Amino acid sequence: MSPDSLTSVVALLDSLAPHALAEPWDKVGLHIAGDGRPIRRVCLMIDLLPEVLADAERGGADLCVAYHPLLFKPLDRLDGASWQSRVAMEAVRKGIAVYSPHTALDSVQGGVNDWLIGCLGNGAVAPLHHASLLDPRQAYRIVVFVPGDAADRVRDAMCASGAGHIGDYSSCSYAAHGMGTFLPGASTHPVVGTRGKLERVGELRLEVPCSASSLRSVLAALRGAHPHEEPAFDIMKMEARPDAAQGTGRVMDLAAPATGSELAARAKAFLKLPMIQRAGRLGQSDTQHRRVAVCAGSGGSLMDAAVASGATLFLTGELSHHETIAARERGVEVLLAGHTSTERGYLPQYARRIREESAARGIALEVRISDADQEVLRTV
To answer: Quick check: is 379 in a domain?
Structure first.
């Protein structure tokens, strides 16, 4: 197998962590395009720090896949004043591409949060917040009524202007036969029919998906290709559908209840940590938990969802002092394992998924995890 282009590899990575699953505030996807070289070697890390980029370069990486976005907050200038700008400048100098999956990888089925909640036991798992999935290329459905002999011309014009995409398929449409009526007025110049006379014509109801960005150009193409003086069409805005298996955080009904001490011990062993922090439920001893929740990284934004779900224990990387107290007062026991400690252990599974998908697509990739990517904080 030959090395593949950056475009193909990015499409592969996007398929493993679709952008539609990322939080609205996140900066997922390709950050630095590199120098156009074929992508042979991929290096994974949580944070693309200077020493991690140096390690990736020594290993011959063409692409760095950094879980946390390197370019999260906009940079005003590339002057080396911040560590992010220094790393970005060095990656550009070396021709190395940079990509980040971040919260899309958290939310996807089989992603970071599914991996993390497995450390607490077995049971039925669901997202704390279900993702509402809608392919942006299908944000609208255009329905146009067109004579049968002109349907192909109208469809082709609309699709050439950006409509008709469903997944990796293009030129997608649906047509159904029907009967249309119209009464041309005194100022009209009908292609079919006569002024003042009610006409009945056989037509096709043609439906084509369309993105918001393409809507204007697609409608112009429709009007240009349609044989009628005044084409009849509707524009329907599509609603996102909830996804039962994907979304932010995870909640689990344990097959066998466990105490907070037992769950803390499981988390420590699974994450290979010498210690984790624990805040027990106010006024209660080491009681058993049946419903538990997790959020990799920083979990404060999901605390309300964890409480609403009925979870009585919440495992996350970090909470503020006041968030921890609030959780305790609301009857939720908290386990804090460190921000990146709840994420880094997923990298081997992510590497395996990339290897499997690249093999399935016939893309030759070497994938490794950076040895220099380590927890910044140390227990002393």
So the answer is: no
